[in-house]
Amino acid sequence: MTRMHKKTQKWSRDERGFTILQTAIALAIMGVICGFAAMGLLQAKAKLRLQNSVRQLAGYLEKARLDAIRRHGTSNVAFIDNSTYVVTMDFGGTGTLTSRTIPFEQDISVFSSDLPTVNFNWRGRTQSCTVTLAVRNGPGQQSNVDVSDAGDVTVDGNVEVFPSVSYAPVNSGSDVQTTAVVSGSTVRNNSVDCTTGGTTGTIGGTITGTGIGCADSATPSAISIRKNGGGSATITVTATNTGTISVQAPINLHVTPATQTVSGGGSATFSITSVNNTRGTFAVNFNSPCTTLTVLLTVTN
Questions:
Q1: Which CA distances in Å does 150 have to 68, 120, 162, 193, 279?
Q2: What is the pLDDT of residues 65-82, one digit of tens each?
Q3: Domains defined along the chain, listed by start
Q4: What pTM was estimated for this model as a whole?
Q5: Residue 196's closest CA among 204, 188, 205?
Q6: Is the dihedral of CA 289, 293, 268, 271 positive or negative?
């Protein structure tokens, strides 16, 4: 074999390109990268749908409030299911109330325990309590819309407690009576208007599930905690029959333990904390051996 022929064979081997294994590895890496990119794109689109739906809802709440003030009448925004609400106001400016049904975007829903209704009176005010609407999308991203008793609407804000204000004592001067004294550092807390008891403490009593041979109970039936791990609630479930008690809760709440085994007539204790900044009132279901007990947990600031 001549030297030139040997060189030609060497060049042929060097110019064969990638092997099948190398090609497969490259394609696998490209597939993983494309998969992560697709997941990120889907997450971004879901977050955008959540933001659009929440801001559209806030916009209609503001329009309904201003309409009630303008007409010196009433208007309202009421949810008919978890992803659809009806706005009743004077859309045409003719003085005649009409209703429009507004759906959320795909996979967007309210997951508070009760479907909320916000009624505005002629002064643009609502019922004497802040209404909090907790909204989420398919991947579990969450947002809040708050409507205070004064009618103020905020997105992912805080309308329950006004900012702290520094007070300067005043008790002298030619234009001020010496008995006039202003002091202290009180912060206005709108949550005290609510019948649920504000930000801490036990509210409600005992909820009981009844049936044939069943008298299970959960105490308390309603309770409040602060958001994002700012406290915990303790629920005691008493079971008539021997078996397992399991818990179902929204993803913004963490319940420990998830299940407990009890003997007939015995009780089990569960601890609940908030894992993020989502506020509102949420249903926590305790599935006992013979019934389902629903405890309402309010997450506040």
A1: 13, 9, 12, 11, 19
A2: 999 999 999 999 999 999
A3: 41-155 (3.55.40.10), 202-300 (2.60.40.10)
A4: 0.69
A5: 204
A6: positive
